[in-house]
Design goal:
Layout: H1 6-9, H2 22-34, E1 40-44, H3 51-63, H4 77-84, E2 90-94, H5 101-110, E3 121-126, H6 133-144, E4 150-156, H7 164-167, E5 171-174, H8 180-194, H9 200-209, H10 214-228, H11 234-241, H12 246-257, H13 261-273, H14 278-299, H15 309-319, H16 324-343, H17 347-359, H18 367-384, E6 389-390, E7 396-397, H19 434-444, H20 446-451, E8 456-461, E9 464-470, H21 476-479, H22 482-496, E10 501-507, E11 512-513, E12 517-518, H23 527-535, H24 538-546
Parallel strand pairs: 1-4, 1-5, 2-3, 3-4, 9-10
Antiparallel strand pairs: 6-7, 8-9, 11-12
Length: about 575
C-alpha cells in the first residue's frame, strides 16, 4: 500500500473532528438539523485550516443514506465514495485549472440533470477566485436560481477577489487561523496514533512553524519523522526547523539592551558566516522584538498571546531588563527600516547600521517615573524653600509670609494703596521680580507678552519703570508706539498698583551674579567660578538630587547692559 502523508491520513471525516472552526461547524450542523440548507456556500480563510475538509464533510452530511444529518456515518456507499473522491454526484473542481467560460458552460449544462444515486448533486470549486471575469458572469444566473437538487460549495484564500455579485448569492463562512494550542493538541494525537515519542515542547515548536495552518504543521511533522525516526528529541526538531538560529536573536537583543554595538556586529557576523539569509534573519529579528514587546505586556497581566510557553518564559526574562516604551522604540525602528531593507542591495550593511542605531539609542524613562520625581521635588521645595511656585491653573501662587512685600515701596504689614488716577478695578498682588512681571503681562495680553520675551526689567525708581532690550530687537519700535506703550503702562500699573511711566534702553554685554542683581564689577569672574557658585545653591542641589544621574552641563552668562535710548515720559 502506498504511503499516505499525515495531512491526508488524519483529515477530519466528521464535523466534531474539525479543529479550530467551532463557529462554522456549529452553524452548518444547526442548518442541517433545521432543514435550512442553502444552495451556495463560500468558505474563505488562510491555507490549511480545513475549508476543503469541511466542504467534503458537508457533502457527506447532505448525501449520507441516513441524512441529511450533522453526523455522517462514513459507512454507507455514498459516504465512502465521497471520502475516496469517486462519487458521481460530488464533483471537486480546481478553479485554477478550470477557470474559463467553457468549463462553466459545461457545468451549467450538467446541473440540469438529477443526481445518480444521492439526494444532492454537489459542486466543490476550490480556489474559486481564480475563475475569469467571464466565467463568473456565466455562473451568476445558475448560482442565483439553481435546481433544487444542486448545492455549490466554493473555497478560496482570497475572498476579496471574488466579485460582489457572487458573494451576494452565497452564504459566506470565514475560517480562522488555528491556535497554537489546538494544533499542538492535534499533533499530540497524531503522535500517539503513530507510536511516535516526542516532547510537548517539540510539538509546540512544530505547531509554531505551521503558522496557524493544520496542514502545514502536519506536513512539517512528517518531515521531522523522516529526519529523526520514531523517537524524536528536542535537538532533532531544532536542527530540522533551524531553531538554533534563535540563539543569535536573543544574543543580539541582549547586546542592544546593554548598549554594546560592537557585540551586535560580532553576532551578526557569526550569523552571516553560518549561512543565514540576511533578509530572512531581519524578518526573524523583527518578529523577535515584537514577541519581546508582547511578553512585556503579558508580564503586566494585560494579555495572552499565541506563543509557545517555553518561548514566552525566555522572552519575559529578557524583557525585564528594559521598559515597554524602550521596546516600542526598538520595534518602531525595525518596522520603519523594513521596507528600505527589502530594496537594499547591501542587506548586511543595512542591518549593521540599524543595530548600531538601536544600541546607541538612549533609553526612555517611563512617564510615571518622571512625574514621581517631579512630585518629590515639588514637595521638597514646598517644605524647604519659602518661595513662589506655579499653581495648577498656571497663575503664580505665593506663600502668606510674602504677601506683604509683593508691591515695591510698601512696608510689611501695611496695606498698599494706589493713586486715584491709576487704581485698577481689581488690584492683584504680584511679586516684584522681572520674570514675574513678564508672566503677568502674558496673562493679561498674550501678544504683548510674546514681544516682551527678550525684555529685561532693570529698575523701578520713583514710578519710572526701566526696560532693557537687546540691540536691534525687531519689536522695540512696535513697543514704543503709543497704543502698545499705553497698554504696557496699564498692565504695569495693575501689577505694581501704582502710577508707572516707562523708559526703554538697549543692552550690551554684562552678566549677573547672585540672585540676578546686575554687577559690572564682577566682569572678571570666570565661568568656572559661576558654575561653582551655582552648584552651591540649595535649589540646584535639590533638583540634581531629585533626578538620579543628572548633572550641571553648562552655565551661560547673561548680556551686559549698555544704557541708551529714551527717558521716562
Amino acid at each position: 500500500m502506498e504511503y499516505l502523508v499525515l495531512a491526508r491520513k488524519f483529515r477530519p471525516q466528521k464535523f466534531d473532528e474539525v479543529a479550530g472552526q467551532e463557529p462554522v461547524v456549529r452553524t452548518l450542523v444547526n442548518a442541517i438539523a433545521q432543514g435550512r440548507i442553502g444552495h451556495a456556500f463560500l468558505f474563505s480563510g488562510p491555507r490549511g485550516v480545513g475549508k476543503t475538509s469541511v466542504a467534503r464533510i458537508l457533502a457527506k452530511s447532505l448525501n449520507c443514506e441516513k441524512g441529511p444529518t450533522g453526523t455522517p456515518c462514513n459507512l454507507c456507499s455514498n459516504c465512502k465514495e465521497i471520502t475516496e473522491g469517486i462519487s458521481m454526484d460530488v464533483r471537486e473542481i480546481d478553479g485554477a485549472s478550470n477557470r474559463g467560460i467553457d468549463e462553466i458552460r459545461e457545468l451549467r449544462e450538467n446541473v440540469k440533470f438529477a443526481p445518480a444515486t444521492s439526494k444532492y448533486k454537489i459542486y466543490i470549486i476550490d480556489e474559486v477566485h481564480m475563475l475569469t471575469r467571464e466565467a463568473f458572469n456565466a455562473l451568476l444566473k445558475t448560482l442565483e436560481e439553481p435546481p433544487g437538487h444542486v448545492v455549490f460549495i466554493f473555497a478560496t484564500t482570497e475572498n476579496h477577489k471574488v466579485p460582489a455579485t457572487i458573494l451576494s448569492r452565497c452564504q459566506c463562512y470565514d475560517f480562522r487561523r488555528i491556535s497554537l494550542g489546538e494544533i499542538t493538541n492535534n499533533l499530540g494525537k497524531v503522535a500517539v496514533a503513530e507510536g511516535i515519542t516526542i516532547s510537548d515542547t517539540a510539538l509546540s515548536w512544530i505547531a509554531e512553524a505551521g503558522d496557524g495552518s493544520m496542514r502545514d504543521s502536519q506536513s512539517i511533522f512528517d518531515q521531522v519523522i523522516a529526519y529523526a525516526g520514531m523517537n524524536i528529541s528536542d535537538e532533532d526538531v531544532e536542527d530540522i526547523l533551524g531553531l538554533a538560529d534563535r540563539k543569535y536573536l536573543f544574543r543580539i537583543s541582549e547586546a542592544v539592551f546593554t548598549r554594546s554595538a560592537g557585540t551586535c556586529l560580532m553576532i551578526l557576523e557569526e550569523a552571516y558566516l553560518a549561512g543565514l539569509d540576511m533578509k530572512h534573519f531581519y524578518s526573524m529579528l523583527l518578529k523577535h522584538f515584537r514577541n519581546l514587546l508582547l511578553a512585556k505586556i503579558a508580564e503586566d497581566g494585560s494579555a495572552s498571546f499565541d506563543i509557545a510557553p517555553e518561548q514566552m518564559e525566555k522572552l519575559k526574562t529578557q524583557a525585564k531588563a528594559v521598559s515597554r516604551e524602550t521596546l516600542q522604540r526598538y520595534l518602531d525602528i525595525l518596522l520603519n527600516e523594513a521596507d528600505s531593507l527589502r530594496r537594499s542591495q547591501e542587506v548586511r550593511m543595512k542591518i549593521e547600521t540599524i543595530l548600531v542605531r538601536m544600541a546607541y539609542l538612549e533609553p526612555v524613562l517611563p512617564v510615571g517615573d518622571i512625574l514621581a520625581a517631579l512630585e518629590i521635588l515639588e514637595k521638597k521645595l514646598q517644605n524647604d524653600m519659602p518661595m513662589a511656585f506655579i499653581a495648577a491653573d498656571g497663575a503664580l501662587a505665593v506663600e502668606e509670609n510674602r504677601l506683604s512685600s509683593l508691591r515695591p515701596g510698601v512696608a510689611s504689614g501695611e496695606p498698599a494703596t494706589a493713586s486715584p488716577a491709576s487704581a485698577p478695578a481689581k488690584q492683584i498682588a504680584r511679586p516684584a521680580s522681572g520674570e514675574d512681571l513678564k508672566i503677568f503681562i502674558k496673562r493679561e495680553n498674550p501678544p504683548l507678552g510674546a514681544k516682551m520675551n527678550a525684555a529685561e526689567i532693570l529698575s523701578l525708581e520713583n514710578g519710572c519703570l526701566t526696560l532693557g532690550f537687546p540691540e536691534g530687537y525687531i519689536f522695540l519700535d512696535n513697543l514704543m508706539e503709543k497704543s502698545q506703550k499705553d497698554e504696557l503702562t496699564r498692565i504695569a500699573e495693575l501689577y505694581y498698583s501704582q502710577k508707572v511711566s516707562l523708559k526703554f534702553q538697549t543692552l550690551a554685554a554684562l552678566k549677573t551674579v547672585g540672585n540676578g542683581v546686575l554687577a559690572s564689577e564682577n566682569r572678571g569672574s570666570s565661568l568656572s567660578e559661576i558654575k561653582h557658585e551655582a552648584m552651591s545653591s540649595p535649589l540646584v542641589q535639590k533638583v540634581l538630587d531629585a533626578f538620579e544621574g543628572a548633572e550641571l552641563v553648562e552655565i551661560k552668562p547673561m548680556n551686559d547692559k549698555k544704557q541708551g535710548g529714551s527717558h521716562c515720559a
